[in-house]
Design goal:
The complex is a heterodimer of chains A (109) and B (111). Chain A has no helices and eleven strands. Chain A is mainly beta and 109 residues long. In chain A, strands 2, 4, 5, 9, 10 and 11 form a six-stranded mixed beta sheet that branches. Chain A is globular, with a radius of gyration of 13 Å. Chain B is an all-beta fold and 111 residues long. In chain B, the strands form two sheets. In chain B, strands 2, 4, 5, 6, 9, 10 and 11 form a seven-stranded mixed beta sheet that branches. In chain B, strands 1-3-8-7 form a four-stranded antiparallel beta sheet, with no helix packed on it. The relative contact order of chain B is 0.33. Classes of the chains: A mainly beta (109), B mainly beta (111). The A-B interface holds A 8, 31-32, 34, 36, 41-46, 49, 87, 89, 91, 95-102 and B 31, 33, 35, 37, 40-45, 48, 50, 56, 58, 88, 90, 92, 94, 96-100, 102-105.
Chain lengths: 109, 111
């Protein structure tokens, strides 16, 4: 089993839709979590860190559920420019950032 | 502020050749790491370092060497390139546990 797992998608949604991605992690010692966005195999860019209490940044909301060991990303009012691959990342206590394989999102006009 | 500088952007090697991918950061980050990305596999950790003189293996270290003589630099060496090492390589740095900053990547082809 992969240490960080994501549904690869693709998720095809119309503009304006709300879409949610989940990511599960197996290492209960994981300390920090992040969502990154990657376009066409360019370098990943930080979308948002994920805090225990949940956090929001504009149209994006991230949640962490330590009991069930998953994190989620909610995108509201999807834009064409949101089309990308979204990478879930967990930082373990052994100084490793482990990436999920990514979830592809395509927002359709 | 340059951030993470990774060179070269593209490289073609013949099987058996050696080369070094360069990575430098100017943010005084303790943590530096190398990833490779293959279709359907996501980013896989090759090697990482938590400070000058300290390196450790990630998920896929075979065929790669690293060293960390300074805080700023973390080169990745391919000793004898193989076609299986054809991939996109990313260097990244951070304070441990905080957000990673990435270089722009190196597309490597081994023929």
């Amino acid at each position: 089993r992969k240490e960080v797992e994501q549904d690869p998608g693709p998720f095809n949604v119309p503009e304006g839709a709300t879409v949610a991605f989940n990511c599960t992690y197996s290492n209960s010692a994981s300390q920090s979590f992040f969502w990154y966005r990657q376009d066409c195999r360019k370098e990943p860019k930080l979308l948002m860190s994920v805090y225990s209490s949940g956090n929001e940044d504009g149209r994006f909301t991230a949640q962490l559920n330590r009991a069930s060991q998953y994190i989620s990303l909610l995108i509201r009012d999807s834009k064409l420019s949101d089309s990308a691959t979204y990478l879930c990342v967990a930082f373990s206590g052994t100084y490793k950032y482990i990436f999920g394989t990514g979830t592809r999102l395509k927002v359709l006009a | 502020n340059a951030g993470v500088t990774q060179t070269p952007k593209f490289q073609v090697l013949k099987t058996g050749q050696s080369m070094t991918l360069q990575c430098a950061q100017d943010m005084n980050h303790e943590y530096m790491s190398w990833y490779r990305q293959d279709p359907g596999m996501g980013l896989r950790l090759i090697h990482y370092s938590v400070g000058a003189g300290i390196t450790d293996q990630g998920e896929v270290p075979n065929g790669y060497n690293v060293s960390r003589s300074t805080t700023e630099d973390f080169p990745l060496r391919l000793l004898s390139a193989a076609p299986s090492q054809t991939s996109v390589y990313f260097c990244a740095s951070s304070y441990p546990g905080e957000k990673l900053f990435f270089g722009s990547g190196t597309q490597l082809s081994v023929l």
